[in-house]
Amino acid sequence: MAKVKPFRGVRPPRDMVTRVASRPYDVLNSDEARAEADGNPSSLYHIIKPEIDFAPGTDEHHPDVYTRAVENFNSFQDRGWLVQDDADHYYIYAQTMDGRTQYGIVVAACVADYMEGRIKKHELTRRDKEEDRMKHVRVNNANVEPVFFAFPDDPTLDDVIAEVIKGEPEYDFVAPDGFGHTFWVIDNPATIDRITAAFDAIPYLYIADGHHRTAAAALVGNEKALANPDHRGDEEYNYFLAVCFPASHLKIIDYNRLVKDLNGLTPGEFLDRLSVNFDIVDKGDAEPYVPACLHNFSMYLKGRWYSLTPHEGTYNDSDPIGVLDVTVSSDLILRDILGIHDLRSDKRIDFVGGIRGLGELKRRVDSGEMAVALALFPVSMKQLMDIADTGNIMPPKTTWFEPKLRSGLVIHKLD
């Protein structure tokens, strides 16, 4: 069962939150972070992307950069830009995008649950990326940024969320990207106990976004446990920062593909090859064609949009991986026709999150940078959880969650 606990969060004062809070470290590069933090010494980027305090081009993995992260973290606390709560709390964090709001519960999740498989993953991680975040957790002795979890809907937790959000929020603001962020502190002991007990009855948590941060946080906590001869199991390092959302609140958006060339084929030859396994409908050159359902693709080629529907028998709906449209497109189009066998390393392919719209696909093909674009119907939360439950791993670049969690609303210290 999922074990969570409340914790003494480290947070900005209410009047500082919009200056401190930032986008996650991994959704922008160093130059973009430097630009966003320009003129704002209290931006969290000085902690999560501290290379911005050095000359442009500085290696973000240089030891001095990690040292600067902890120096800035300590300075933020000394200056009162981050202040630790005086008691253990849970928190509710709501995000609003395009008129839709999702409500997450901010918890300290259990390291042992990750190590023993009760926190389930659906993606592979790279050791170099894990090690980068592990160094960040080690030097700060804190989880500065949260990870993004889902859990099967639970009526008790639904009731808790409904009750808490009737009260006045601690933070309520719209970020520069137009997404709303609202945050409540839960300080009622009875409510805190209800949350702990409800999660204790939930068998699994699911990583929605943040596989590398989750691995790093858990591995550092496990390191600390192994290094402590007096380890008991209730120390703060046995837990890490997570925001847990009911699965029904979450919406996965499309994650689309662009390919630089047609593998030596003319557009006509490429369409002929596609017709072996797909019904093709020319949708014209006016409005972008949006995939209508599972097993329907949108393609942009030579100034025209197409609907592609794979023939019966070319996919396996009884297989949690075979049913995915990323699998169908990877096998029947990218591999068999375009000669792309490794989505992680092939330089001929690029990926675009659906948040940027199908117009971005059209722009990059029309510019001549890319030859063809594929837009996919989004994966469902049920598919994600089925894959995690069966111990399978999704193909690369399958899920895109939006909005991203805002970093800096609350931090979890490991001592």
Structural overview:
The protein is an alpha+beta fold and 415 residues long. The protein has helices spanning 17-20, 30-37, 45-48, 63-78, 111-115, 127-140, 155-164, 189-200, 211-227, 267-274, 325-335, 358-366, 381-389, and strands at 4-5, 10-11, 83-84, 90-97, 100-110, 119-120, 142-143, 147-151, 171-174, 180-186, 205-209, 239-246, 252-253, 255-259, 278-284, 297-301, 304-310, 349-353, 372-375, 400-401, 412-413. The strands form 5 sheets. Strands 1, 4, 5, 6, 8, 9, 10, 11 and 12 form a 9-stranded mixed β-sheet that branches. A 6-stranded antiparallel β-sheet has the order 15-17-16-19-14-18, with helices on both faces. Strands 2-3 form a two-stranded antiparallel sheet.
Overall mean pLDDT: 95
| SS strand fraction | 15-25%
Task: Outline the biggest β-sheet.
Answer: 9 strands, mixed
Low-confidence stretches: none
Shape category: globular
Task: Report how far apart the termini are.
Answer: 25 Å
